[in-house]
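Researcher: Please translate sequence to C-alpha coordinates.
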Amino acid sequence: MAVMHVDMDAFFAAIEQRDHAAYRGRPVIVGGLSGRGVVSTCSYEARRYGVHSAMAMERARTLCPHAVFLEGNYAHYREVSRAIFAIFARYSPVVEPLSVDEAFLDLAGLGRIMRTPRGYAEKLKADIWHEVGLVASCGIAPNKFLAKIASDLEKPDGLVVIEEEDVLSVLAPLAVARIWGVGKKTEEALRALRIKTIGELRETSPARLSCAVGARMAQHLLALANGVDTRPVVAARERKSIGREHTFPKDISAGEEAEAALLALAGEVGRRLRRAGIRARTIQIKVRLGSFQTITRSRTLPDATCYDAEIYKTAYELFCALRLREGIRLLGITAAGLTAGELSLFRDEAKKDSLYAAIDAINEKLGTAGITKAKLLRRAHE
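Model: Translation complete:
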Protein backbone atom coordinates (compact mmCIF):
# COMPACT_ATOMS: atom_id res chain seq x y z
CA MET A 1 0.00 0.00 0.00
CA ALA A 2 1.64 3.22 -1.15
CA VAL A 3 -1.01 5.98 -1.09
CA MET A 4 -3.71 7.21 1.27
CA HIS A 5 -6.46 9.60 0.17
CA VAL A 6 -8.21 11.50 2.95
CA ASP A 7 -11.46 13.34 2.25
CA MET A 8 -13.42 15.27 4.87
CA ASP A 9 -17.11 14.43 4.83
CA ALA A 10 -19.40 17.34 3.80
CA PHE A 11 -16.66 19.66 5.04
CA PHE A 12 -18.25 23.13 5.17
CA ALA A 13 -21.63 21.82 6.32
CA ALA A 14 -19.97 19.57 8.91
CA ILE A 15 -18.11 22.54 10.39
CA GLU A 16 -21.38 24.44 10.72
CA GLN A 17 -23.02 21.46 12.42
CA ARG A 18 -20.05 21.09 14.74
CA ASP A 19 -20.17 24.76 15.69
CA HIS A 20 -23.97 25.08 16.02
CA ALA A 21 -25.86 22.46 17.99
CA ALA A 22 -29.15 23.59 16.44
CA TYR A 23 -27.96 22.47 12.98
CA ARG A 24 -27.06 18.90 13.98
CA GLY A 25 -29.26 16.25 12.43
CA ARG A 26 -30.79 18.83 10.07
CA PRO A 27 -30.15 19.35 6.37
CA VAL A 28 -27.54 22.13 6.00
CA ILE A 29 -26.75 23.71 2.63
CA VAL A 30 -23.80 26.07 2.17
CA GLY A 31 -23.33 28.21 -0.93
CA GLY A 32 -24.39 31.32 -2.79
CA LEU A 33 -27.81 32.45 -1.62
CA SER A 34 -28.57 34.72 -4.57
CA GLY A 35 -30.85 33.63 -7.40
CA ARG A 36 -27.83 32.51 -9.37
CA GLY A 37 -25.97 30.95 -6.46
CA VAL A 38 -24.87 27.33 -6.41
CA VAL A 39 -24.46 24.77 -3.65
CA SER A 40 -20.89 24.59 -2.39
CA THR A 41 -21.43 21.79 0.14
CA CYS A 42 -24.41 20.16 1.78
CA SER A 43 -24.79 17.82 4.72
CA TYR A 44 -25.73 14.18 4.25
CA GLU A 45 -29.18 14.97 5.64
CA ALA A 46 -29.68 17.30 2.64
CA ARG A 47 -28.28 14.76 0.17
CA ARG A 48 -31.15 12.42 0.99
CA TYR A 49 -33.41 14.93 -0.78
CA GLY A 50 -31.28 14.91 -3.93
CA VAL A 51 -29.25 18.03 -3.16
CA HIS A 52 -25.60 17.94 -4.23
CA SER A 53 -22.61 20.21 -4.79
CA ALA A 54 -22.68 22.53 -7.83
CA MET A 55 -26.50 22.36 -7.96
CA ALA A 56 -28.30 25.66 -8.51
CA MET A 57 -29.37 27.04 -5.14
CA GLU A 58 -32.92 27.63 -6.41
CA ARG A 59 -33.18 23.92 -7.22
CA ALA A 60 -31.84 23.02 -3.78
CA ARG A 61 -34.50 25.22 -2.15
CA THR A 62 -37.17 23.40 -4.15
CA LEU A 63 -35.91 19.95 -3.19
CA CYS A 64 -35.28 20.75 0.47
CA PRO A 65 -37.10 23.95 1.50
CA HIS A 66 -36.79 23.21 5.23
CA ALA A 67 -32.98 23.09 5.15
CA VAL A 68 -30.65 25.53 6.91
CA PHE A 69 -29.23 27.74 4.13
CA LEU A 70 -25.89 29.44 4.83
CA GLU A 71 -23.54 31.61 2.78
CA GLY A 72 -20.62 30.18 4.71
CA ASN A 73 -17.63 31.55 6.59
CA TYR A 74 -14.79 30.60 4.28
CA ALA A 75 -12.06 32.26 6.33
CA HIS A 76 -13.11 30.04 9.23
CA TYR A 77 -13.19 26.97 6.98
CA ARG A 78 -9.60 27.70 5.89
CA GLU A 79 -8.51 27.86 9.54
CA VAL A 80 -10.05 24.44 10.16
CA SER A 81 -8.38 23.17 6.99
CA ARG A 82 -4.98 24.28 8.25
CA ALA A 83 -5.51 22.35 11.48
CA ILE A 84 -6.39 19.21 9.51
CA PHE A 85 -3.40 19.51 7.20
CA ALA A 86 -1.17 19.89 10.25
CA ILE A 87 -2.40 16.44 11.30
CA PHE A 88 -1.76 15.07 7.80
CA ALA A 89 1.85 16.29 8.07
CA ARG A 90 2.35 14.11 11.15
CA TYR A 91 1.39 11.01 9.17
CA SER A 92 3.42 11.51 6.01
CA PRO A 93 6.40 13.61 4.91
CA VAL A 94 4.74 14.12 1.50
CA VAL A 95 1.20 15.54 1.44
CA GLU A 96 -0.43 16.59 -1.83
CA PRO A 97 -3.44 18.87 -1.31
CA LEU A 98 -6.32 18.52 -3.76
CA SER A 99 -8.54 21.12 -2.09
CA VAL A 100 -9.13 22.58 1.38
CA ASP A 101 -10.66 19.30 2.55
CA GLU A 102 -8.81 16.48 0.80
CA ALA A 103 -5.27 15.30 0.15
CA PHE A 104 -3.06 12.40 -0.87
CA LEU A 105 -0.52 11.12 1.65
CA ASP A 106 2.52 9.16 0.45
CA LEU A 107 2.90 6.06 2.63
CA ALA A 108 5.99 4.65 0.90
CA GLY A 109 8.69 3.70 3.40
CA LEU A 110 6.41 4.04 6.42
CA GLY A 111 5.96 0.29 6.98
CA ARG A 112 7.69 0.22 10.35
CA ILE A 113 5.71 3.18 11.65
CA MET A 114 2.23 2.20 10.55
CA ARG A 115 2.35 -1.56 11.18
CA THR A 116 -0.85 -2.06 9.16
CA PRO A 117 -2.32 0.46 6.67
CA ARG A 118 -5.80 0.10 8.14
CA GLY A 119 -4.59 0.75 11.67
CA TYR A 120 -2.66 3.80 10.47
CA ALA A 121 -5.77 5.24 8.81
CA GLU A 122 -7.90 4.49 11.87
CA LYS A 123 -5.46 6.44 14.04
CA LEU A 124 -5.44 9.39 11.64
CA LYS A 125 -9.24 9.46 11.56
CA ALA A 126 -9.33 9.34 15.36
CA ASP A 127 -6.85 12.22 15.65
CA ILE A 128 -8.94 14.38 13.30
CA TRP A 129 -12.07 13.60 15.31
CA HIS A 130 -10.53 14.28 18.73
CA GLU A 131 -8.56 17.38 17.71
CA VAL A 132 -10.88 19.00 15.18
CA GLY A 133 -14.25 17.38 15.85
CA LEU A 134 -14.88 16.32 12.25
CA VAL A 135 -15.25 13.03 10.40
CA ALA A 136 -12.98 11.96 7.55
CA SER A 137 -13.14 9.14 5.02
CA CYS A 138 -9.92 7.37 4.03
CA GLY A 139 -8.88 5.19 1.13
CA ILE A 140 -5.61 3.28 0.91
CA ALA A 141 -4.42 1.63 -2.29
CA PRO A 142 -1.38 1.03 -4.50
CA ASN A 143 -1.81 4.35 -6.36
CA LYS A 144 -3.58 7.73 -6.35
CA PHE A 145 -6.48 6.80 -8.62
CA LEU A 146 -7.36 3.73 -6.57
CA ALA A 147 -6.90 5.53 -3.24
CA LYS A 148 -9.37 8.23 -4.28
CA ILE A 149 -11.83 5.59 -5.46
CA ALA A 150 -11.43 3.78 -2.12
CA SER A 151 -12.11 6.85 0.05
CA ASP A 152 -15.45 7.37 -1.69
CA LEU A 153 -16.74 3.80 -1.49
CA GLU A 154 -18.12 3.85 2.05
CA LYS A 155 -18.78 7.53 2.75
CA PRO A 156 -19.46 9.02 5.22
CA ASP A 157 -16.92 7.92 7.86
CA GLY A 158 -15.47 5.36 5.47
CA LEU A 159 -12.23 3.44 5.51
CA VAL A 160 -11.46 1.17 2.58
CA VAL A 161 -8.19 -0.60 1.78
CA ILE A 162 -7.83 -1.94 -1.77
CA GLU A 163 -5.30 -4.75 -1.94
CA GLU A 164 -3.35 -5.37 -5.16
CA GLU A 165 -5.12 -8.67 -5.82
CA ASP A 166 -8.58 -7.06 -5.44
CA VAL A 167 -8.10 -4.10 -7.78
CA LEU A 168 -9.93 -5.46 -10.83
CA SER A 169 -12.86 -6.90 -8.87
CA VAL A 170 -13.37 -3.63 -6.96
CA LEU A 171 -13.29 -1.52 -10.12
CA ALA A 172 -15.43 -3.77 -12.33
CA PRO A 173 -18.95 -2.78 -11.13
CA LEU A 174 -18.23 0.95 -10.77
CA ALA A 175 -19.66 3.45 -13.25
CA VAL A 176 -17.23 4.75 -15.88
CA ALA A 177 -17.93 8.27 -14.60
CA ARG A 178 -15.77 7.40 -11.58
CA ILE A 179 -12.68 7.53 -13.80
CA TRP A 180 -10.75 10.80 -13.87
CA GLY A 181 -11.28 12.60 -17.15
CA VAL A 182 -14.70 11.12 -17.90
CA GLY A 183 -17.03 14.07 -18.28
CA LYS A 184 -20.49 14.21 -19.80
CA LYS A 185 -19.31 14.04 -23.41
CA THR A 186 -16.98 11.12 -22.82
CA GLU A 187 -19.63 9.30 -20.80
CA GLU A 188 -22.14 9.77 -23.65
CA ALA A 189 -19.61 8.44 -26.15
CA LEU A 190 -19.04 5.37 -23.98
CA ARG A 191 -22.76 4.81 -23.54
CA ALA A 192 -23.12 4.82 -27.32
CA LEU A 193 -20.79 1.80 -27.20
CA ARG A 194 -22.97 0.30 -24.43
CA ILE A 195 -20.20 0.80 -21.89
CA LYS A 196 -21.53 1.76 -18.49
CA THR A 197 -19.13 0.16 -16.02
CA ILE A 198 -15.37 0.09 -15.63
CA GLY A 199 -15.45 -3.67 -16.11
CA GLU A 200 -17.19 -3.26 -19.50
CA LEU A 201 -14.67 -0.59 -20.43
CA ARG A 202 -11.77 -2.87 -19.60
CA GLU A 203 -13.13 -5.54 -21.97
CA THR A 204 -13.42 -3.10 -24.89
CA SER A 205 -10.75 -3.26 -27.60
CA PRO A 206 -8.38 -0.27 -27.84
CA ALA A 207 -9.26 0.19 -31.52
CA ARG A 208 -13.00 0.40 -30.88
CA LEU A 209 -12.47 2.77 -27.98
CA SER A 210 -10.10 4.98 -29.98
CA CYS A 211 -12.73 5.45 -32.67
CA ALA A 212 -15.15 6.79 -30.07
CA VAL A 213 -12.96 8.98 -27.85
CA GLY A 214 -9.59 9.28 -29.60
CA ALA A 215 -6.40 7.26 -29.17
CA ARG A 216 -4.95 9.31 -26.31
CA MET A 217 -8.13 9.24 -24.21
CA ALA A 218 -8.60 5.53 -24.95
CA GLN A 219 -5.13 4.80 -23.63
CA HIS A 220 -5.83 6.86 -20.51
CA LEU A 221 -9.18 5.15 -19.85
CA LEU A 222 -7.88 1.62 -20.32
CA ALA A 223 -4.91 2.23 -18.02
CA LEU A 224 -7.13 3.41 -15.18
CA ALA A 225 -9.72 0.72 -15.88
CA ASN A 226 -6.94 -1.76 -15.19
CA GLY A 227 -5.92 0.08 -12.03
CA VAL A 228 -2.71 1.50 -13.51
CA ASP A 229 -1.71 5.00 -12.35
CA THR A 230 1.98 5.91 -12.26
CA ARG A 231 1.66 9.49 -10.98
CA PRO A 232 3.62 10.11 -7.78
CA VAL A 233 2.30 11.94 -4.73
CA VAL A 234 3.88 15.40 -4.83
CA ALA A 235 3.96 18.10 -2.17
CA ALA A 236 1.99 21.33 -2.55
CA ARG A 237 2.73 22.93 -5.89
CA GLU A 238 3.88 26.50 -6.25
CA ARG A 239 0.90 28.82 -6.67
CA LYS A 240 0.64 30.09 -10.26
CA SER A 241 -2.10 32.68 -9.90
CA ILE A 242 -4.37 34.48 -7.44
CA GLY A 243 -7.81 35.53 -8.54
CA ARG A 244 -11.27 36.54 -7.51
CA GLU A 245 -14.54 36.62 -9.44
CA HIS A 246 -18.14 37.54 -8.71
CA THR A 247 -21.42 36.42 -10.27
CA PHE A 248 -24.13 39.09 -10.02
CA PRO A 249 -27.73 38.38 -8.95
CA LYS A 250 -28.84 40.34 -12.03
CA ASP A 251 -26.91 41.33 -15.13
CA ILE A 252 -25.14 44.66 -14.63
CA SER A 253 -24.24 47.35 -17.15
CA ALA A 254 -20.76 48.17 -18.39
CA GLY A 255 -20.88 51.54 -16.61
CA GLU A 256 -20.46 52.52 -12.97
CA GLU A 257 -21.64 49.15 -11.66
CA ALA A 258 -18.89 47.32 -13.49
CA GLU A 259 -16.34 49.96 -12.47
CA ALA A 260 -17.23 49.54 -8.80
CA ALA A 261 -17.15 45.74 -9.09
CA LEU A 262 -13.68 45.81 -10.65
CA LEU A 263 -12.49 48.17 -7.93
CA ALA A 264 -13.68 45.76 -5.22
CA LEU A 265 -12.17 42.75 -7.00
CA ALA A 266 -8.82 44.54 -7.43
CA GLY A 267 -8.79 45.26 -3.71
CA GLU A 268 -9.39 41.62 -2.85
CA VAL A 269 -6.73 40.36 -5.26
CA GLY A 270 -4.22 42.93 -4.02
CA ARG A 271 -4.88 42.01 -0.40
CA ARG A 272 -4.40 38.30 -1.13
CA LEU A 273 -1.13 39.00 -2.96
CA ARG A 274 0.23 41.01 -0.05
CA ARG A 275 -0.92 38.43 2.48
CA ALA A 276 0.98 35.75 0.53
CA GLY A 277 4.05 38.00 0.25
CA ILE A 278 4.06 37.93 -3.56
CA ARG A 279 3.57 40.25 -6.54
CA ALA A 280 2.18 39.69 -10.03
CA ARG A 281 3.42 40.65 -13.49
CA THR A 282 0.27 39.75 -15.41
CA ILE A 283 -3.28 40.96 -14.78
CA GLN A 284 -6.17 39.17 -16.46
CA ILE A 285 -9.87 40.00 -16.50
CA LYS A 286 -12.73 37.58 -17.09
CA VAL A 287 -16.13 38.77 -18.30
CA ARG A 288 -19.15 36.54 -18.71
CA LEU A 289 -22.03 38.15 -20.57
CA GLY A 290 -25.73 37.58 -20.08
CA SER A 291 -25.61 35.31 -23.13
CA PHE A 292 -22.99 33.21 -21.24
CA GLN A 293 -20.24 34.18 -23.69
CA THR A 294 -16.99 34.37 -21.70
CA ILE A 295 -14.23 36.81 -22.62
CA THR A 296 -10.72 37.02 -21.13
CA ARG A 297 -8.06 39.66 -21.69
CA SER A 298 -4.64 40.05 -20.06
CA ARG A 299 -1.69 42.43 -19.89
CA THR A 300 1.85 41.90 -18.64
CA LEU A 301 3.22 44.82 -16.63
CA PRO A 302 6.77 46.17 -16.81
CA ASP A 303 7.10 45.66 -13.04
CA ALA A 304 5.39 43.18 -10.74
CA THR A 305 2.80 44.69 -8.38
CA CYS A 306 0.62 43.92 -5.40
CA TYR A 307 -1.04 47.35 -5.22
CA ASP A 308 -4.84 47.64 -5.58
CA ALA A 309 -4.64 50.85 -7.63
CA GLU A 310 -2.33 49.37 -10.27
CA ILE A 311 -4.31 46.14 -10.48
CA TYR A 312 -7.53 48.12 -10.88
CA LYS A 313 -6.08 50.52 -13.48
CA THR A 314 -4.88 47.63 -15.65
CA ALA A 315 -8.11 45.65 -15.26
CA TYR A 316 -10.29 48.68 -15.98
CA GLU A 317 -8.33 49.58 -19.13
CA LEU A 318 -8.67 46.00 -20.39
CA PHE A 319 -12.38 46.10 -19.62
CA CYS A 320 -12.99 49.45 -21.35
CA ALA A 321 -11.23 48.22 -24.49
CA LEU A 322 -13.96 45.59 -24.88
CA ARG A 323 -16.62 48.29 -25.45
CA LEU A 324 -19.38 46.03 -24.15
CA ARG A 325 -23.04 46.81 -24.71
CA GLU A 326 -24.54 43.58 -23.40
CA GLY A 327 -25.42 42.92 -19.77
CA ILE A 328 -22.67 41.38 -17.63
CA ARG A 329 -23.27 38.25 -15.56
CA LEU A 330 -19.79 37.76 -14.05
CA LEU A 331 -16.57 39.73 -13.57
CA GLY A 332 -13.23 38.43 -12.41
CA ILE A 333 -9.62 39.54 -11.96
CA THR A 334 -6.66 37.15 -11.82
CA ALA A 335 -3.04 38.02 -11.04
CA ALA A 336 -0.43 35.71 -12.58
CA GLY A 337 3.30 35.64 -13.22
CA LEU A 338 3.88 35.61 -9.47
CA THR A 339 7.19 36.57 -7.88
CA ALA A 340 8.43 37.02 -4.32
CA GLY A 341 7.04 40.29 -2.96
CA GLU A 342 10.13 41.80 -1.41
CA LEU A 343 9.87 45.37 -0.14
CA SER A 344 11.01 47.98 -2.66
CA LEU A 345 14.25 49.90 -2.19
CA PHE A 346 12.76 52.97 -3.86
CA ARG A 347 11.32 55.59 -1.55
CA ASP A 348 7.94 56.03 -3.25
CA GLU A 349 7.40 52.28 -3.48
CA ALA A 350 8.45 51.81 0.14
CA LYS A 351 5.83 54.39 1.15
CA LYS A 352 3.19 52.41 -0.75
CA ASP A 353 4.28 49.20 0.98
CA SER A 354 3.95 50.85 4.39
CA LEU A 355 0.59 52.41 3.53
CA TYR A 356 -0.92 49.16 2.25
CA ALA A 357 0.49 47.24 5.22
CA ALA A 358 -1.28 49.65 7.56
CA ILE A 359 -4.55 49.43 5.62
CA ASP A 360 -4.39 45.62 5.57
CA ALA A 361 -3.74 45.51 9.32
CA ILE A 362 -6.77 47.71 10.02
CA ASN A 363 -9.05 45.76 7.70
CA GLU A 364 -7.81 42.44 9.10
CA LYS A 365 -8.91 43.62 12.52
CA LEU A 366 -12.09 45.51 11.68
CA GLY A 367 -13.31 43.78 8.51
CA THR A 368 -16.04 45.73 6.70
CA ALA A 369 -15.86 48.44 9.34
CA GLY A 370 -12.27 49.20 8.32
CA ILE A 371 -10.89 51.18 5.38
CA THR A 372 -12.52 51.01 1.95
CA LYS A 373 -12.62 53.00 -1.29
CA ALA A 374 -14.85 56.08 -1.25
CA LYS A 375 -16.56 54.96 -4.46
CA LEU A 376 -17.45 51.60 -2.92
CA LEU A 377 -18.70 53.31 0.23
CA ARG A 378 -20.98 55.57 -1.79
CA ARG A 379 -22.42 52.61 -3.70
CA ALA A 380 -23.04 50.70 -0.47
CA HIS A 381 -25.26 53.55 0.75
CA GLU A 382 -27.14 54.16 -2.52
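Researcher: Any highlights?
Model: Confidence is low (pLDDT under 50) at residues 342-348, 365-372, 376-382.
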